[in-house]
């Protein structure tokens, strides 16, 4: 009751206050909803200027971007891979933790070097990239208990950022 009185004393509750109260009752925050297959398809199709998956398959731009790779486009996993590559990291995957996660991003699933290295692409220098890589390598190198796949991915990210400059 005290929590209800507290919310009502601040005036008419807004959506944020109601969500906070619901999370208080739930005992924890609600997880970010996972994208549906329809949402994934729509977002990927929009990137390539297509209205639907059939039109996307016929798109020259899409076929050029996918050259050398095969995607079935019948499973959610395939659409999620395309979403991660062309749209961004889904909200439900931005707070991951674990041996393969850096700054909330699973580096084996998402190739987002600027975010992983915590750098601003408009101001970062080659030295900033090298410093960020060294800092991450100290924590994720296999010699200190890190995952070799993560270290390999960090090296690829570093190389791609340095090539970008």
Task: Write up what this structure looks like.
With 165 residues, the chain is mainly alpha-helical. It folds into three domains: 1-30, no CATH class; 37-92, no CATH class; 96-164, Helix Hairpins, CATH 1.10.287.110. Helices cover 55% and strands 2% of the residues. The protein contains nine helices and two strands, in the order ααααααββααα. A two-stranded antiparallel sheet has the order 1-2. Strand 1 and strand 2 (105-106) form a beta hairpin. The chain is extended and about 60 Å long. 18% of the residues are buried.
The CATH homologous superfamily name of the largest domain equals DnaJ domain
How do the strands line up in the largest sheet?
Answer: 1-2
Count of helix runs: 9
Task: Give the radius of gyration.
Answer: 21 Å
Distance from N terminus to C terminus (CA atoms, Å) equals 58 Å
Tally the beta strands: 2
| Corresponding CATH architecture of the largest domain | Orthogonal Bundle
Helix content: 40-55%
Class computed from helices, strands and strand pairing: mainly alpha
Instruction: Estimate what percentage of residues fall within beta strands.
Output: under 5%
Shape: extended
User: pLDDT below 50 for ≥5 consecutive residues: which ranges?
Assistant: none
Largest sheet: 2 strands, antiparallel
């Amino acid at each position: 009751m005290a929590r209800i009185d507290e919310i009502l004393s601040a005036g008419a509750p807004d959506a944020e206050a109601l969500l906070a109260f619901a999370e208080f009752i739930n005992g924890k925050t609600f997880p970010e909803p996972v994208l549906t297959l329809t949402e994934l398809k729509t977002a990927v199709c929009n990137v390539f200027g297509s209205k639907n998956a059939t039109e996307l398959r016929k798109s020259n731009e899409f076929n050029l971007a996918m050259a050398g790779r095969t995607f079935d486009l019948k499973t959610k996993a395939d659409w999620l891979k395309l979403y991660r590559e062309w749209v961004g990291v889904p909200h439900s995957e931005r707070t991951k933790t674990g041996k393969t996660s850096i700054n909330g991003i699973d580096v084996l699933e998402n190739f987002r070097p600027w975010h992983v290295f915590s750098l601003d692409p408009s101001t970062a220098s080659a030295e900033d990239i090298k410093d960020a890589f060294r800092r991450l390598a100290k924590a994720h190198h296999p010699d200190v208990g890190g995952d070799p796949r993560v270290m390999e991915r960090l090296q690829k990210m570093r190389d791609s950022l340095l090539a970008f400059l």
